[in-house]
Design a protein that fits this description.
single chain; about 200 residues; mainly alpha
Length: about 200
């Protein structure tokens, strides 16, 4: 049994249902072309109810990436890694997400470029975390780090005496740029990430 109230759990379930609806709809439609009405109908809620959970459509992408970071925290909780191994897992985890939802990940990057959403990680409520990871109560209240914070932590584990700002910039360019390249050129994202990481980690660390 959870310690969360029925109201909090219902809200969390609705948010996750909205995201699942977008996952389904994005298989046949570009996210930019999706209407809030269609997302609401696919979820089984009204448009008015939708806006109780997300101020605008693009916030769903931010929510998706908040869950991406939460899932990484869960992986680290169950199987701790450090340094280069941890960095490579970040990108492997991301590649899996891109393969599952290629259009959404490309639209997330595009929304960052057009300032439709800000790059800070979304706040994932404790009830949402419980529904996603009921076996990891340690994750319910702690701050979810941004992607840059995760990468910088693991770079420091490789060498805590160095300034890793340049390497972080290269990793961020790889993280976002390879998603667009995979989407536009039809290339395998995991292969792109692996090749980029081999170059960056060999030359910068």
């Amino acid at each position: 049994m959870s310690d969360f109230g029925k109201r909090a759990l219902n809200k969390a379930q609705t948010r996750l249902k909205v995201l699942d609806a977008v996952y389904r709809l994005s298989k046949t439609s570009n996210f930019r072309d999706l209407k809030v009405k269609s997302i609401a109908e696919e979820t089984g809620i009204t448009e008015m109810t939708f806006f109780n959970y997300f101020q605008k459509k693009e916030e769903i992408l931010k929510y998706m990436m908040g869950i991406w970071a939460l899932d990484l925290m869960a992986l680290q909780h169950h199987n701790p890694l450090t340094g280069e191994a941890a960095i490579r897992r970040v990108f492997k985890h991301t590649a899996e997400q891109v393969k599952k939802h290629p259009r959404l990940m490309a639209n997330f990057v595009a929304s960052l470029l057009t300032s439709e959403i800000d790059p800070m990680a979304n706040v994932i409520e404790a009830a949402d975390r419980f529904l996603l990871h009921p076996d990891a109560p340690e994750l319910y209240e702690i701050k979810i780090p941004s992607g840059n914070e995760i990468l910088m932590q693991h770079l420091a584990e490789i060498d805590s005496t160095r300034d890793h700002t340049r390497t972080l910039l290269h990793l961020a360019s790889c993280f976002y740029g390879d998603v667009i390249l995979a989407d536009t050129a039809g290339l395998d994202i995991e292969m792109l990430y692996t090749n980029s990481l081999d170059l960056i980690l060999q030359n910068d660390t």
